[in-house]
Each structure stands twice: as C-alpha cells, then as structure tokens.
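Query structure, 454 tokens:
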C-alpha cells in the first residue's frame, strides 16, 4: 500500500480525473485533483506531492508552462505527461523541459500503474539523495566548526547567536587566516535563512571587468563573450545570504551599485533594463581597516555604514594562544585517516610559542603536514615543518652568557623566565600555567612567591 504517497492529477476532463482517482485510491495512493493548469501549479507548490500526472492541453495555463515552472520550483518531483498526440514534438519538448516520462491517450492502465510505481520509487530516491546531501553537509560542517575555549572567542560565539536570526548586514574584520568565513558560515547556519541559498564571492579574486557581471549578472550581448543571459550572485542568493569576502577590493564605481542594492534591494543586470528585486542578507569581510580606507578615499563612507550594522572583529591567533590546544584537537580529528593522533608535550609547547602570522589557516597547514610526516599516533617535534624546528633550536638557549655566575643563579634566572612566560601565555591563570610547566600548583605558587611574580 502507498498511503503515504500523494499523487496530483491535473486534467481538464472530469471523467478522466474521476476514473484515475478511483484506480489510484484502490492502489492505496492519496490523490489530489486540479482541473486546470493554474490550479495544478498552485496545488503543487502548496502541497508538494510525490508525483504529478499532468495533461498537456489544459485551460488557464498550458501543461507545458506548468511543467516549465515546476521544473524550476520543484525539480525533485517527477511529472508524467498525458498527451493525445504521440506523433507530435510535444512529448520531446516535455522530456527536454524535465518531465519524468509521458503516456499517450488512450493508455493501458497496467502500463500506467507500472510507470507510476517507477516514478514513485524515483521520487523516494530523490528524497534519499536530499537526506544524503544533508548528511554530507553536516559532515562538511567539520570544516566550518567554530572552535575556541578562550574568552575572546566565547564573546564572538555569543555575538553570532544574538545576530544570526536578524536580517541586519554584518561586517567581519580580521587578519588573513583568522576564520572570517567560518564566522560567516556559522551566522548563516544558525539563521532563519539556513535552508535558503548561501552564495560566496571572493571580490579580490575577480578582475574589475568581471566583478560587476559576477555579482549582478548580464544579458545576452551585453559585452563581448556574453552569448546568453546569466544570473549574478545576488540573484542566485535571493531570499538567502551572500558572503562578500575582501569587500575592500570592490572598485568605487561598483560600490555605488552595491549601495543601491542595500538601500532599495534592487538592481539591473549588466546590459539589461529589467529591475530585479531581491531580499538578500549581506555578510561582508575584510582584512583591511575600512575606517582607514574611508579616510583615504578608497571606500565610500555611506557604504561602510550600511555594511557595518553588526560588527565582529576576529582576533589573530597570537592574541588567543589559549585556543591553540582546542584547534589542534579539531585539526587532528579533521585530517586523521586511521586511529587517533596526539601531539607530544614538546610539540604543544612549540605551537604555543609561535607568532602565527598566517593565523588559524597556518596552524591547520602545520597539523596537516605533521600528520602526513608521522607514521604513528604521536606527533613529535621532528614531524613539524623545518622552519619551526629551526626556530626552536634558535630560542632554546637563554639570552645570557655562561661563566659569569654560579650554576644555581643561572638556573633560577632561567626558571623565573619560564614561569613569567607561562603566566603570560595563560593570561595569569596559575592553574593553566602549572599544567603548561608540568608542575603541581603548590610548587608553582611557591616559585611565584619566591621570584615575587605576584
């Protein structure tokens, strides 16, 4: 029985609808009816049936027009076309337009039922494919997961939670590699637009001559090489979210058009006259100080304020070393192929001491490199890139000369220096500093008092 399967019959002949409904109901299907094309289209959009039986010749709206619209709006729903003109080109056109199959009137009922069964199975596979894609998307979230245990990142996480469901534009500022796109992903993922399109554009990766067409689309013949109409990224993102990375790269002439999109939610394709209206949220990101760009005359002040409704500044990794252990664990999990990898205490110490000019992206590359170079479960210093090993060797010896003082004095001076560095790394957290130095807390407290480091 197929009681959970709904079939929409769209035919202007009442007798045809009645007979088909009786047969399909006896087979266990749930059946809806539509007597003209417009009613069929509206019913399909509202109820989203599992299968549509659609007559080509219908009043109000032709079956081919219904098929064309549904192929765009609900491409996952199979449509079987009824035609009384088997020798015409209409069935061919129907198949090109996205029909699952067609049958000629009068048709063999058993053959129709068999075709319906196959179409319903196809519809089920489409739903399974959608679920599979959702699972893949969820696994992909490993790449876009927000990671950070320190106070600075926790504040950003709170901000994401507050602004996600708003329609306000967001401006994300931070150095290259800090994870601005990951923040944008999180805002979209937790927003009420999460099931709508999410389109990303790296404005700095496109030449000025192509950027306008990429963002707003173009009409056929708008310029040399524009052979056919093309929708732009804003049009593709309609109803959803668009992420404009390296927003500072947009030339001033195009900044004016972007400002109009924000103010009036409309634009024209390049070479076109039709005004296209959209409801798209903008998330922009840059590694430049846009206030300085405005002062220098390279970025429009009015556009800056339109984008900067919600402002999120992502700190560089060197300012939040407390997040490094969590990030390391995340990347170890992300890139592991078999088993479970761990980093040695020496490796973690080395990673905590780095300045990370490439920020999180650089750390990710280092961990990926180390996993490839290691042959066991534990990553040790020799698995790190050579530049890091060289840096460690250069900084291993203290910055004072031997021979001038007693061993006890030199040892205590070096010990004091290490404790100071540990306290700096942990923001004064003595418990974490003790863990970093691999001593118990009481021992560390005694040393802090001895060296007057309170």
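Result returned for the query:
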């Amino acid at each position: 029985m197929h009681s959970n399967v709904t079939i929409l019959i769209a035919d202007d002949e009442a007798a045809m609808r009645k007979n088909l409904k009786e047969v399909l109901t006896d087979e266990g299907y749930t059946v809806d009816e539509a007597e003209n094309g417009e009613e069929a289209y509206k019913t399909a959009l509202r109820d989203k049936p599992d299968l549509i039986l659609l007559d080509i010749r219908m009043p109000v709206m032709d079956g081919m027009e219904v098929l064309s619209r549904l192929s765009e709006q609900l491409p996952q729903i199979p449509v079987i076309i009824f035609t009384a003109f088997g020798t015409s080109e209409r069935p061919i056109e129907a198949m090109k337009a996205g029909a699952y199959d067609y049958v000629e009137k009068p048709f063999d009922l058993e053959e129709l039922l068999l075709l319906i069964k196959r179409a319903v199975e196809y519809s089920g596979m489409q739903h399974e494919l959608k679920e599979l894609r959702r699972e893949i998307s969820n696994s992909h979230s490993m790449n876009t997961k927000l990671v950070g245990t320190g106070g600075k990142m926790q504040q950003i996480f709170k901000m994401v939670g507050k602004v996600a469901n708003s329609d306000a534009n967001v401006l994300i500022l931070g150095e290259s590699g800090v994870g601005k796109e990951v923040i944008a992903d999180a805002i979209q993922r937790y927003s009420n637009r999460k099931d709508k399109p999410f389109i990303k554009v790296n404005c700095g990766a496109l030449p000025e001559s192509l950027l306008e067409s990429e963002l707003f689309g173009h009409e056929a013949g708008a310029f040399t090489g524009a052979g056919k109409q093309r929708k732009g990224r804003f049009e593709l993102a309609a109803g959803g979210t668009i992420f404009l990375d390296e927003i500072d790269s947009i030339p001033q002439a195009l900044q004016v058009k972007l400002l109009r999109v924000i103010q009036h939610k409309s634009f024209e394709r390049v070479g076109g006259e039709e005004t296209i209206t959209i409801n798209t949220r903008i998330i922009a990101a840059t590694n430049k100080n846009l206030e300085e760009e405005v002062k220098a005359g390279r970025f429009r002040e009015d556009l800056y304020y339109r984008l900067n409704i919600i402002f999120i500044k992502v700190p560089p990794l060197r300012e939040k070393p407390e997040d490094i252990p969590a990030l390391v664990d995340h990347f170890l999990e992300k890139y592991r192929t078999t088993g479970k990898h761990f980093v040695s205490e020496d490796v973690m110490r080395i990673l905590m001491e780095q300045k990370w000019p490439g920020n999180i992206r650089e750390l990710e590359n280092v961990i990926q490199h180390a996993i490839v170079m290691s042959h066991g479960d534990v990553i040790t210093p020799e698995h790190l890139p050579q530049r890091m090993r060289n840096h460690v060797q250069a900084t291993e010896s203290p910055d004072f000369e031997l021979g001038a003082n007693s061993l006890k004095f030199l040892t205590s001076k070096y010990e004091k220096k290490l404790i100071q560095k540990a306290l700096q790394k942990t923001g004064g957290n003595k418990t974490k500093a003790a863990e970093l130095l691999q001593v118990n807390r009481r021992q560390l407290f005694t040393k802090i008092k001895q060296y007057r480091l309170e």
